[in-house]
Input
Amino acid sequence: MAVTVGVLSEAHETESRVALVPEVAAKFSALGPRVLVQAGAGSGLRIPDSAYAGCEIADSATRVLSEADVLLKVNVPTMEEVAALRPGAVVIGFMQAHRNLDIVRQLSNRKITSFAMELVPRISRAQSMDALSSQAAVAGYKAVLMAANSLGKFFPMLTTAAGTIRPAQVLVIGAGVAGLQAIATARRLGAVVEGYDVRSAAREQVLSLGARFVDTGVTAEGEGGYARELTEEEKKQQQDVLAARVAVADVVITTAAVPGREAPRIISADMVAAMKPGSVILDMAAEGGGNCELTRAGETVASNGVLIEGPINLPAHVGWHASDMYARNLLNFLKPAIAEGKLAIDWEDEVFAESALTHDGEVRHAPTRELLQGAG
Output
């Protein structure tokens, strides 16, 4: 019997995305699985149920959960969703295990196999499955548009009858996928852009986008393309240089995040106080505690004439393309495990082995297992 791939309407209030868009759902069907989509799953993107040609539309989440062999999610499943899944089912999505230990424990207890898309190894073969990168690109783009909307100034230089308007000065802290997209977007809008990252490899990428690279003299190469944690001395050196660049910026966009841990604190309240009135900080790391000392997740804070924005779930603000890219990530992730419509996971494949969170009653991801043990 063909495997059933289920898709739900996401339960989070701020979520517009859906795990499968119609075009990618059709590609799943072509591989042989039965695709079961909850009615209204695409309503956040104004996708009608009729667009899911070749898929079955289920009138309730209960039916999807009871029949799915593989459940595709954007966000971590709720406790109720996990409880409704059959033991032995597979669920795939962004799990954020360190923030959802109770759900991880329930997944393990019910012998549900779960894969966390944020754990997909960053190897060449898995680039097409890298959902962190696809969603970060969307977030970096939207962050600049939001900051530009809040700034109250033009981004480009303009020559008018009333005189010449100088371009906005934008500083992007963190030059990963989100930061590079932010740099590129700010440049397209005509701003003068500076970029900073503690990884020395980022210099060439920042320069290639036409931005100036801020050199603090601190480099911190880490594993998996991420930066390692800085020493106290390195943090002081970094802040001394960045403080001067933050002070002259009209817009500061921060993107520094470490998966599974709190975001590094980079901008202090004193640095904010030294900024020009009317300036904007957009903290993309708000959900992880924020890169700015004054950031409040989901809020806009005013301090000394500076706006500090802490948006959450930025990809959902560009839901159509975010969903399309994410659905393709899921297809590329699961495709090697589907043969003639049936599911056959190769546990020797490092992509599946390293992205597995729970399987057969065990927590496979060591850091999460240690957190659970510590939590009792």
User: Anything to note?
Assistant: The CA atoms of residues 121 and 292 lie 29 Å apart.
